[in-house]
Amino acid sequence: MASPQDRPGYGASRAFIDLHCHTGASFDSLASIGAVVRAAATRGLTHLAVTDHDLIDGALRARDAAPDGLTIIVGEEVKTVDGDLIAVFLDRVVPPGMSALETIAAVREQGGLVGVPHPFDRLRGYGHKSGAALADIADSVDWIEAYNARVIGGTANEQAAIFARERSLPGVAASDAHTVLEVGVAYSRVWGDPSTPAGLLAALADIDIQPGRASFYVRAWTPLAKLVQSLRGNGRIRTRPTPGEPT
């Protein structure tokens, strides 16, 4: 076993990071931005990627509202025609509806990083609707969600961890929070400062995931949130139709 001195970030402080979190800017969440950042800070997170669906407005507001000691990373969960991707360190929104490789290229143009959320979830997994193969983009992404706190039943998280390990990709844990109660329920502990793209890549080389799960009753609020947001006129953003979906 390697000694602590062999760690890439030895001598640097530890960071506690959740790379997948939603606010009320998403079509399926009612969590206020202020409550999300306060919860993250109170629960000991040092870095939180706010990754609302196909928007960065909430992430920008969260960055402005973050208390001392909490770094907000501006991100987005992008719906591609192949499956969802997490993009972080964004300056502008990445539009939904492109292919996965087109989306990754658009993120790279901004100097951002890309991860794959809940890749083997039976309802939300990569390629679930399109038939796209995760292996086809494995060399183009920066991490895999080896543990997603919202995956229900089955072996989806185990499959994701195995996939990441077999391809020497960092496997992170993420809350995928859609309510304040879920913020930080799963996270990753890293060494170094993941506040920049280069810093996050270096930190992900030595990662310790901290799994956790929100209760079924908390997750059950999501359909209600979708209904309320739809009534408010804040439905999901759509551009190109996903194969198999009605136009």
List the helices and strands and how they pair.
Blueprint: E1 14-21, H1 33-42, E2 47-50, H2 57-65, E3 71-79, E4 84-88, H3 100-109, E5 113-116, E6 143-148, H4 156-166, E7 171-174, E8 187-191, H5 197-203, E9 207-210, H6 216-219, H7 221-231
Kindly summarize this structure in a few lines.
The chain is α/β, with parallel strands linked by helices and 247 residues long.
Structure in words:
With 247 residues, this protein is of the alpha/beta class. The chain has one domain (12-231): TIM Barrel (Alpha-Beta Barrel), CATH 3.20.20.140. It is 25% helix and 20% strand. The chain contains 7 helices and 9 strands; from the N terminus they run βαβαββαββαββαβαα. The protein has helices at residues 33-42, 57-65, 100-109, 156-166, 197-203, 216-219, 221-231, and strands spanning 14-21, 47-50, 71-79, 84-88, 113-116, 143-148, 171-174, 187-191, 207-210. Helix 1 (33-42) packs across helix 2. The longest helix has 11 residues, at 156-166. Residues 1-11 and 241-247 have low confidence and may be disordered.
Number of domains: 1
What is the CATH domain class?
Answer: Alpha Beta
In the CATH hierarchy, the third-tier topology is known as TIM Barrel
How do the helices and strands follow one another from N- to C-terminus?
A: EHEHEEHEEHEEHEHH
Q: Which architecture does the CATH hierarchy give at level 2?
A: Alpha-Beta Barrel
CATH homologous superfamily assignment:
Metal-dependent hydrolases
Low-confidence stretches: 1-11, 241-247
Q: Helix amount, in percent?
A: 25-40%
What Rg do the Cα atoms give?
A: 17 Å
Q: Residue-averaged pLDDT, rounded?
A: 90
Distance between the termini: 55 Å
The biggest beta sheet, please? Answer: 9 strands, mixed
In terms of quaternary structure, the protein is single chain
Strand order of the largest sheet: 7-6-5-4-3-2-1-8-9
Number of helices: 7
Globular, elongated, flat, extended or rod-shaped: what is the shape? globular
Count of distinct strands: 9
Strand content: 15-25%
Overall SS class: alpha/beta
